[in-house]
Amino acid sequence: MSQHLLLPLVILAISPIPGAFPDSDCGRPEPSARIMGGSDAQPGSWPWQVSLHQGGGHICGGSLIAPSWVLSAAHCFVTNGTLAPAAEWTVVLGVHSQDGPLDGAHVRAVAAILVPDNYSSVELGADVALLRLASPARLGPAVRPVCLPRASHRFAHGTACRATGWGDIQEEDPLPLPWVLQEVELRLLGEAACQCLYSRPGPFNLTFQLLPGMLCAGYAEGHRDTCQGDSGGPLVCEEGGRWFQAGITSFGFGCGRRNRPGVFTAVAPYEAWIREQVMGSEPGPTFPSQSPQPQSVLSEPTDENCTIALPECGKAPRPGAWPWEAQVMVPGSRPCYGALVSESWVLAPASCFLGRISSDHQPGDLDNWRVLLPSRPRAEHVARLVPHENASWDDASDLALLQLREPVNLGAAPRPVCLPHPDHYFLPGSRCRLAHWGRGEPAPGSSSLLEAELLGTWWCHCLYGRQEATVPPPGEPPQALCPAYQQEEAVAGSCWVTSAPPLLCQTEGGSWVLVGMAIRGSRELFAAIGPEETWISQTVGEAHFLPPSGFTLWPPESSDLCPPDMAGASGSPQAAIFLLLLTPLIQG
Ligand code: ARG
Predict the structure, then answer these.
(1) Among residues 405, 389, 419, 409, which one has the least CA distance to residue 517?
(2) For residue range 448-501, what is the model confidence (pLDDT) as tens digits?
(3) Which residues line ligand 1 (CB under 6 A)?
């Protein structure tokens, strides 16, 4: 920016006298004018937001509550029970982008850091701190205090509030240059709803106790959240044209994970503590009274239910670009392909690992196993291998579940595949594909040729059932699935070297579901995965099974209805498609 442009700014910045803004004028940005899942803030829209620097860089956020006072989080300053010296910290006020010269910003030294006596660690609460500035901030359009709630102030559950900060935009993904302040809308969650979400399965199974003085904000489905570097910053809610600070960014489990909303220090319960610390300082913070008291908020049923979020499964950018494709790397053998089925679990053929599984089912060298997932910067470690109990003698149970040491953050990728309920029925004609599976490698260019449509169970039985007796008549388990390939030769030509691929079929909503496992290396007969629901959900704790489709699983016809020219046929799937098209679909 050129010199002559700077000049008016300087004049503007020095003209306001501290205290020129009336005491009561808190929480009002100049009319004008990641955080994860957020967006760039408008310059000047959050004039109380400050950046706390240590060693020359941004460490935490904070909020200006009075010309000489900043509110932040205790954990920014306390390490192993020791409070950092105030002299190490500076407060940067009126800053928007932290890249380059901090235009329009000014810096204050910190005279004192105050933390409640009962603060020990974030999970135990009282994560609040006050910084006394060495000299008062220069209030102006870009620097103004926020309003503080009184102890009696109640923020209604569900209120859309805003969190702001220069923190990471995703786990381990720092805000990119030019480091523009981010804002995100977060909804206040009631205590019971928050505790309820945390007690449900999801990433980081944990024992978490929401304590008095804590507040949750976010969404069951995740995605929008504060993250590392946002701590100490404000969560503000608008009431009667003013912004009140409801919370202080404190902690979370990962960032933006489903069923794991961010935890904030509630500000209202600290009214007395704040007043006590700032006593005698003029002007002090403003605690406007709440008007009118919202009726809806005064009682929250303690047994409040919560709507937990299941991971979004089965959405792929295009067929063949599978965001759940997992490559299991076992030292000394070729990679084995499997599918991610939750934040922490990969389903793969047990035959990849048989022989490596000791009698207690735990291979000794899991430490050296790695799992590669799409869009993950590093390979995942493996904590556990759980083979299906029938894996070694039943083809249709050639399954093993691998648990990752750390749950991965789900998004567009990696994203789990959907699994069918035992009674999820795919209509004949459903679009299907074969996927990478097991230790083989796909033949080049094969994936585009492996499109298939599902045949009805009756056709499946008629085509394959009599001859090989592998497909029972409809109504008798095991349930078999027959895909009909659109280009038959492609099937023979496109081999996975060793293992049989699984069959993915698409729901009407466009989600891909892992519906079947090839039986005995066949590309024509697949054992349904649906019946493994119990084993999978018991092992994984939770998976993203599609709801039952509401169709009856087995069509009522009897096998005697197989057309004579199909009896014992080796089965031309193309003929079958033709017949399928001629025959009205009876299922429904
Ligand atoms: N403790 C973090 C910090 O120091 C804030 C983390 C907030 N995490 C979350 N998932 N809401 O910046």
Answers:
(1) 419
(2) 446 777 776 667 777 666 555 566 666 665 667 777 776 554 444 444 444 567
(3) 167, 225-231, 249, 251-252, 255, 262
Q: Is residue 588 part of a domain?
A: no
Q: What are phi and psi of 427, to 5 degrees?
A: -65, 140
d(CA 362, CA 73): 44
Contacts of 88 (CB under 8 A, 6+ apart): 54, 55
Tokens 């503000």, residue located: 236
**Number of domain units in the chain:** 1
Q: Which residue has its alpha carbon closest to ligand 1 atom 2?
A: 228
Q: Range of 222's domain? A: 39-278
Q: Catalytic annotation on 231?
A: yes
**Contact present, 297 and 155 (Cβ < 8 Å):** yes
Q: The domain that contains 259 carries what CATH number? A: 2.40.10.10
Domain annotation covers residue 496: no
Residue 437 within any structural domain of the chain: no
**Residue-wise pLDDT tens digits, 191-211:** 989 998 998 877 887 788 999
Specify whether the CB–CB gap between 338 and 326 falls below 8 A: yes
* Buried/exposed code over 531-561 (b: 16+ C-beta within 10 A; e: otherwise): bbbebbbebbebbbbbeebeeebbbebebee
Summarize pLDDT for 377-423 with one digit per residue, the tens: 899 999 999 999 988 777 778 899 999 999 998 888 899 999 988 77
Per the residue annotation, which of 51, 63, 68, 231 is the catalytic one?
231
Residue 509: which H helix or E strand, with range?
none
The number of the ligand 1 atom at minimal distance from the alpha carbon of 230 is 12
Residue 53 lies in a domain: yes
